[in-house]
Design brief:
The complex is a heterodimer of chains A (about 650) and B (about 140). With about 650 residues, chain A is an alpha/beta fold. In chain A, β10 and β11 form a beta hairpin. By secondary structure, chain B is an alpha/beta fold. Chain B has a single domain, classed as Rossmann fold (3-Layer(aba) Sandwich). In chain B, α1 runs antiparallel to α2. The chains are: A alpha/beta (about 650), B alpha/beta (about 140). Chains A and B meet through β1 and β3 of A and α1 and β7 of B.
Chain lengths: ~650, ~140
Amino acid sequence: MVNRQPIKKEIILVIFLTLLSTFFVYVYKAVLSSESKIFHQIENAKIKEYSQIFDNFTNHLKKNHNVKTREDLFNLMLNRQHRKVCENSLSLLNTDEIKYIYILQKDSKGRFRFLLDASKDDKAHFYQKFDVEGKAYEKIYKTKKPQVINQTDIENLYLTYLYPIIINNQVVAIASVDISTQFKKDVSNTMAYFKVLFKFLIILIFLVIVVVTVYIFYYYFSRKKLFTDPLTQIFNRNYLEEIKSSLNLNNYAIAMLDLDKFKVINDTYGHKAGDYVLLESASIVKKSLRDNDIIIRFGGEEFLIFLYVRGNIQSAISICDRIRKNIQEHQFIFEDQEMLVTTSIGLNTTPFEAKDLNDAIKLADAKLYLAKRNGRNQVVASSSKDKDVVLEDTKTKDINFVKKALNDERVVCYFQPIYDVHKNKIIKYEALVRIIDTDGSIISPFFFLPHIEHTNIHFRLTKEIFRICFEKVKKTQQPLSININYSDLINVDIENIIVENLKGNKDLASKVTFEILESDEIDNIELFTRKIKLLHSLGATISIDDFGSGYSNFKTVLDMEANYLKIDGTLVKNIDKDEKSYKVVKNIIQFAKDAQMKTIAEFVHSKEVYNKLVELNVDFVQGYYICEPKPEMFDETQLFK
Amino acid sequence: MKTLFLIIFLTFSLFANQNDIRTKIITTVLDNLSLNGEKIIFSDDKQLLDGLSKKYKVTNDCLDSNFLILNSFVKLNKACKKKDIFVLNYNLLYDIPQSFGAFFFKKGRANIVLLKDKLKAQKIIPSKQLEPYVEDRLW
């Protein structure tokens, strides 16, 4: 699974830290460079100052003592008194930074000798030999220019500055200043404040980097926790919220995956088995995906998958079907119990056409609902037609849509005839709920029922349907089938409405058939049986809806003492082509006859299917081949058109 | 002269400790001075004496020696005063009139001074390498 946004963030972070590190190195170098530059500037200023003093000293010798040759200078310095005066004038230079200051003269043998020593310590005798050697001492005579010697080998000396005393264009002596390492210390002390400031800044930057790094690690650690489902270790809905704004829907197809009959697994084998199935399924899905795909645990047993297909619809369908097959073929064994797990997948192949991500997910959800409704264990992908119809419809068909329709009395019933193939007449009608949208269009229940399941609005809707149906029967005196699911049946308010209308009204009750969905998960068989008995006692008839699609055992079906058994449409619709379906339907018809139940086949959409059912001796049929649902009841003349 | 300078400056670079430098240079000076007979050295500087003992015969009694290296002005036995004396301070050349030469640090630089007339009187012959350090008189 690739998390595109965080990778982007990590790259930005790496760039940021690299820049910060570069800045850190730059500041550090700048500190060193600045110190060196400032130091040299101070050094040059000092040297300039010494040059100036020695220049004055030379002029003093020329003007006041009429020195014209090196011999004149020697003779002048030979005089102790003159020497003292000159020493005093030079000693003004003596500071902490100057270690020694003296005048040297080269004798006839090329040896350097002290003419004058104005140093505070280690004073030399007049004309004492001084063993110095170096290129600078030769160069100064040749170039007649000052020389600087950087002292590295002499203790406590940092630098020696040699200044030529030139008279009549001849170097008659060398004025020498030995600068102490104290000078360097003084400059360094001056720089110390800047260095401390820079060091403080560098430490501060370093600390900021450390804090930021720790924060980032903490952020990623907690982020991972926040966005990960603890059971399956895949992303949860928080992650969806996180990536919502940055997700490019042009690159993805959206699949909504739901494990079929998961509640039954939980109820039958326990929650640990349920967790095991979830974990295994998530692992199978992950393995079936590529790195660029994103999987999110959307709800209990619902997974949302973003397939990185970049418009390749066929690829998205193939991946979904691969997931479905992989789950179906996987052996789910928990505590020696093998469980058959299948999955239904709704696929939105063109999410980029939706208004936003929520709408794109809704379309995938609507397709999932279709997959469930069509018998589960299948993939239903959106088509170009859906873009115009389903997409438009799913936009607003949520709980508020139904609530508003109830308030505005826009809930209506359509009626589809149930036809007796032996007597060639309509025996009753099935009431099918519809909502008239604000623009007058008719909205099918599959767009809004999934959104209101197990909500009060669902119960309100059921009550409204009952009100419409009872009124219709009273008005037309035509028998009518009304769908009711298990949760409706055990709801006290709905029970009260049924009892209020049917109790003491045998005529009405005899014309009402309650179609109970066999595929509903019934968690309390005893309560369910009691409610069925109540309906029987009121004089209504019972039909088992969608028989063949659920998990109910034969005993429960027999205990219901139903009058009708409606065969699941997914079995019926392929009866002319699929031998297996044919055999199953045949057996159901036989079972119903043995149990003294009349059989109804729904989804009869063609003449071929109709003929097969007649051949199997089914009692009643229902479907578009006979007649589509209409807003009003009608007679046999309207059939088979 | 340049060779000796090179030795002096190299030893400066190689040895951080001034005592080691001093020992090294004095050893070089001694190597380049020829005396009558073997040099048996006495010094009031014990550290220097230890250093020189690696190459030369040394003694703690000036009477047993024939070459004295003095670091300070000490009251010498009369018999010792007649021996060859090398000092470790320029001013000692004044204080000890019989001293013929000195090694000392002046303004951080190693300096050698050998007095021509004293060398002659004491029949000490410096090698050619030491000639640049031979002075006609004491300044």
